[in-house]
Every structure is written in structure tokens, then in C-alpha cells.
Amino acid sequence: MTERLVITTEGPLSLPAGRQTGFSVDTLFHIPGTVLRGALAQAYLEAGGDTNDSTFEACFGSAGIRFTDLRPAGAFPWPMSLRECAEYPGIHPRVDLLLPLSRGASLLGSCGVCQAKLLPLTGFGKAVRNAVQPYVTEKVVVDRRMHSAIDPHTLRVIPEKFHSARTLAAQQTFTGKLWAAAAAEAEWPKLLAKLVDVGTRDSEGRVTLFLGRGRSRGQGRVTLKLVSGARESGMQQRLVEFNELAGSPISFAFSCDFRSTALFYDPWLRSKTRLEGEDLHPELVDYRAVATFARTAARSGWHAAAQLPKPETPLLDRGACYLFQRRLPEGVSVMQEIERLAPTLEKLEATGTGERLSEGWGEVEFCHPIHLAE
Q1: 2-74+166-228 maps to which CATH number?
Q2: Would strands 157-168 and 24-25 be described as parallel, antiparallel, or unpaired?
């Protein structure tokens, strides 16, 4: 089962980006899937559920429900291979270096119009129609919230402790996906029914949850709505269009973009970013990465049951992209390879790849049109 999730912020939302020090707290610009998963589990337990019942185990066990990261509606992280003009960003044409790098081109380059330096993009992109640029930057509205610490003995302001926090503004929409295994598919309606019983779900099917920090100051209230039916993947068509430009009659290629952080281990259980096809799925063992754009990012969290911080883990950062290629065996055509690989790639887009998939890590998309359009 795959459904689309829609979250609307009903108030300021603060999701600290890593471990915060000092009196200023920054926020993430998206809602991690693991945050939503934890909030639903807490809401279920507060509604009278139990960690030992079948519903909790099916929905929040290791092979239960997987929530992807929720991003601004229709947006995706800019690929690390994309570059734009440093002097006129968004005006001069962008260039994607994934395909040129696979053909031996140098990463050093300049704007084709003004010869200025090219810089990588940050944030989120979104496809638009009838525009000079086929993709534009999707803005996320943020606020700055400030408060002073209160002395618990005198109930007065402590002058030396003035806190500042960046928050996502209210009335913004973030979308993601939910994938449920067969066992969880039957139990998921029971979990929602439990939330209805305690009045946390309205007549329009929206569930009220609290995410992030600052609940005592009125922060973190969101509403969650499920929209049944995911869009068609069109995997075969994407593979055909991609190989018309990137492949050849004797070779086959596909790109892989990471929409969330991901974790892959080497034989010594160290996190790695240099991936080959077999790291994604055993059926891709013959594919080699001929172009790579990746970096690591440290992630930590909070273990609610133990009331302890989780250790920092080096992960493959979102926006990483790879171009995998193989030489086709004699007698195998491009269309035959597409028919063989399409079901595997569709499954990977639904279930993710790598480790700790239940936390929303390892979300991928194959043959995104941006690598051809730019």
C-alpha cells in the first residue's frame, strides 16, 4: 500500500538541525519521516495503545510502515550535480554535470553566458510549466521566535539567557509518501481509529499531531491528511527517455537521485558514499557508477524511551546523485533491459534502499527529467 501524506503547519514548527549549542536554534526546512513516525507512535500510546499490541508492532516494527521525508508540495532537493551562475542565479541557464562527467568532462566550468563561476544549488526545486526555466526554487517561509529564560525560584527573567529559534511558518503544506508492508496494511486503519476515539481526527480525516520542540510555547501543532492513491511511476518511459540521450545500443544507463539521507555500510560496517549498483539491489550487481556527486552529513536524534541522545551517524546526504552504467550482453537489447529493470527500480522507489528504511532514509528517484532538461 502506498499513500500520499499531506501535513499543514497550524502554528510555528521548530525541527532542530542536529545538536544545538548556544542560545540560537536553527531548523530543518523539511519534516523528516522519522519525526512523523515518532509523533504518530506517541499519539497512539497517549490514546491508550500499548507497545505490545499487534497494531503497534505491525505499524512501527522494523518492517511495518515507512514514512518518507515531507517537503514543500511538489518539491525535491536540488541534485548536487546541478550548477548555476554565481552572478545571475535563476536568470542564466543552469547546467547539470552528471552526464558530462560520465563522458570525461571536467567539473571546472563557467557560465556559458557571462563566464562567471558556477555554484551548486541549495534548497528545493520544483517543476513549472510555460516558464523560461523548467525548474524553479521552491521557497520555505521561516520565522524567528525569541524568548527569555525564567528563573524557577523568582519567576523572573534571567537577563543573561535570551533564546532565539528559527521556525517554519504556519499554514505551509508539506507532502510525502507512506508505504506499508502487507502486515501493516491491515493494522493501519485500526491505528487511525484509535486516534479518532480520542478526538484527534476531524470530519475531513485530518489527524492533529505535535512535532518538534516548543510545544509549551504553542509550537509544533500540525494536521496530517492521507490522500489515497500514488501517482503512476512511468518508470519504463523515464528509462527510455534517459537512454535516448545517456545510453547507446550496446550500453544501458540510469541515474539515481537520493531524496533523503541514506546509510550504506562497507564490509567493515563503516558508512560509505562510493556506491555501486549492488549496493542498491542485488539485481543491479553488473552496474558501475560512472559519475558521482555525493557528500556525508552527520545525523543524530533523541531516544524517547531511554531519554538519551542518539549517537551521531555519518550518512549520505540528500541530493546525492549517481549515474550507473553497464555494457549490455550480446543479444540483449535496450528495451529488454528496460523491461527487466523497471519492476526492480519501481520497488526501490517505494521501499527505499540502504539501512534503517523505517526511519524514512534511503528514498530514491531514478532517471529524473532534470538531468536531461538542464
Answers
A1: 3.30.70
A2: parallel
